[in-house]
Design goal:
mainly alpha, Fumarate Reductase Cytochrome B subunit, two-stranded antiparallel ribbon, elongated, disordered C terminus
């Protein structure tokens, strides 16, 4: 409990200034990089001819997916104990509600996608070792199912995986567009809260002044 209290106290030093802690920012940008790498790798992998190289590419994709799952679960745990800042974007209205829904949808997708891939691998190649950068990783307990059942499950997970990726790409576009709107049009501190080297395009608050979000009816500066 003392460790959590100290972490919360340390994080509050950042959230009072309207920013996420360095740990939260690292989770965000690290996962973002992994997601873009996985999207590119999956696109590349789908265009490879069947053979040993494609199998190796699947193994890399699986390992990166499992890493994404681990980091996402760690991020969710961190967020449960260390809340983010209240910034200028936290105003009453549909945009704030939509932002929260979008964040929860990101959490769902970045857990569901690796799990669906894990299920595909366990159904498709139950005897093929699965690992994450040299460390053994267990298969899901579906290897003893009948071959026809595993094939049906694999095809279902493949379709689910595809549509989850489609939703993820659409959500990324909306999320990035909203972040740019906050920074360049609304000129608030929502984007700067997660970007360690970016300052909001508005007068900086005097040092030591507690951060408070704009009032619901206040226009952006």
């Amino acid at each position: 409990m003392n460790v959590i209290a100290r972490l919360r106290g340390w994080a509050r030093g950042h959230t009072r200034a309207g920013r996420y802690s360095p740990v939260g920012q690292t989770f965000h940008w690290g996962l973002a990089g992994l997601v873009f790498l996985q999207l590119w790798w999956g696109w590349r992998m789908g265009r490879m001819p069947v053979g040993a190289d494609k199998l190796d590419a699947y193994q890399v994709h699986a390992q990166l997916g499992l890493l994404t799952l681990i980091l996402m679960l760690l991020r969710m745990t961190w967020r449960a104990f260390i809340p983010g800042p209240i910034n200028d974007a936290d105003r009453q209205g549909w945009r704030t509600v939509a932002a929260h829904i979008g964040h929860y949808l990101f959490y769902f997708l970045l857990v569901a996608l690796p799990i669906s891939g894990w299920m595909m691998w366990s159904a498709m190649a139950p005897k093929q070792p699965l690992s994450i950068f040299g460390l053994p990783w267990p298969h899901l307990p579906i290897g003893d199912l009948a071959a026809e059942t595993r094939w049906t499950l694999m095809r279902s997970m493949q379709a689910l995986h595809f549509w989850l990726v489609v939703i993820l790409v659409g959500l990324i576009v909306v999320h990035a567009g909203a972040a740019l709107q906050h920074h360049f049009i609304d000129r608030d501190d929502a984007f700067a809260a997660m970007a360690p080297l970016v300052e909001p395009l508005q007068p900086k608050r005097p040092e030591g002044t507690p951060h408070t979000p704009l009032k619901p009816d206040a226009p952006p500066s």
